[in-house]
Amino acid sequence: MGYYKFMERSASRIDFDLSPAQEEHARQLHSEILVFDGLMECSWYDGLVTQLKRGGTTAGSLSIGNFGYHRWQGKTEDIDARLDDWWSADTLFSDIGFVNAKISEHSDDLVLCLNSADIAQAKKDGKVGIMLDVQNTEFAGKDPDRLETFYNLGLRRAQLTYNMTVPAGAGCMETRNSGLSNFGADMIEKMNEIGMLVDTGHCHSSTLMDALDVSQVPITCSHAGMASRCKNPRTQTDEALVKLADNGGVFGIVSTPGAITGTDKCSVKDYVETIDAAVNLIGVDHVGFGSDFSLAASVEEIMTAPEWNDKLREAVGVNVQVWPWSDGHKGFENNSGYPNLTRGLVAKGYADEDISKIMGGNFIRLIKDVIG
């Protein structure tokens, strides 16, 4: 099947015109720093553990509770899915069990992380740490207290909305900037209370800015592009990003070609240029990356979601001829591509300390400040 072709193969190596000494420096630096992906996957594809290890990953946020991990099989027909399966409490609960079983199965290589100390320990132990997030708050129904139930099961981050408007507020595909709702404000207050990180990766920029007015602690926009560089719904305005940074938050640049170049193709060089633009806008202390792969899913499975019809898919630049969409990102086709980012930042002239911040340090600082 075509969408499996990058699951076992390493990401392409990109020529950054580095000298042998620079290459060795980048290799050594990457092995020493804490590499944290703000959204490293939303599925469990064959070869995920291998690629995370190849990529020198310290830890990352694994997005669950969407369609159901047991359903991401790359099917193109006979898909067992209902609209009610998306973002439900039952799906989130099932996925927590699925991931815990996978971590137990790969206990020599993986560990569940609940806080920043767990991430540091994962690095010492040579394991890949997994934190759990969900990209919508619909699972909570009308009860913010349900957040605490799932916090106690290991969930550490919740995105207020996905693409469309939900009770918490307006998603990135919404044409009206209705922003955060009163219920969304209640959700943020509950997340602040229990130490759960507020995420706005798929939120409309108005929702992001409203969330910053409500939250008593910094928040994240875990995986999005920059509207000033690319016309795409999966981007945030400069105004919103500056406000995010002013409030101590972290912006994760998404690796989707459509949100980087506005087409279905890009390279790590384009990715680094977008990271550099974000640093120039909001400062190096507030920029990271959230790759957002979905290698195990077929287009047909994704399209069972209420938020992904043909019109919306085309708006974000998902081309059925380039699937998975990470296939179109040369040098970042899967989770083994993280060293290419470090190499690209070295080529860009970034200091080691700043590379360490971008490659994970900023997200880990935010996790420590908010979660512990």
Task: Characterize the structure shown.
This protein is an alpha/beta fold and 372 residues long. The chain has a single domain (2-370), classed as TIM Barrel (Alpha-Beta Barrel). The chain contains 14 helices and twelve strands. The strands form three sheets. Strands 1, 2, 3, 4, 5 and 6 form a six-stranded parallel β-sheet that branches. Strand 4 (128-134), helix 5 and strand 5 form a beta-alpha-beta unit. Helix 1 packs across helix 13 and helix 10 (268-282) packs across helix 13. The radius of gyration is 19 Å and the shape is globular. The relative contact order is 0.17. The model has no long low-confidence stretch (mean pLDDT 93).
* Alpha plus pi helix count: 14
List segments where confidence is low: pLDDT < 50 over at least 5 consecutive residues: none
* Structure classification: alpha/beta
The count of β-strands is: 12
Report the biggest beta sheet as strand number plus sense, adding barrel if it closes. 6 strands, parallel
Beta-strand share of residues: 5-15%
The first-level CATH class is given as Alpha Beta
Shape: globular
Helix content: 25-40%
What's the oligomerization state?
single chain
Computed CA radius of gyration, to the nearest angstrom: 19 Å
Structurally, the number of domains stands at 1
In round numbers, the mean pLDDT is 93
CATH superfamily: Metal-dependent hydrolases
Reported by name, the CATH topology is: TIM Barrel
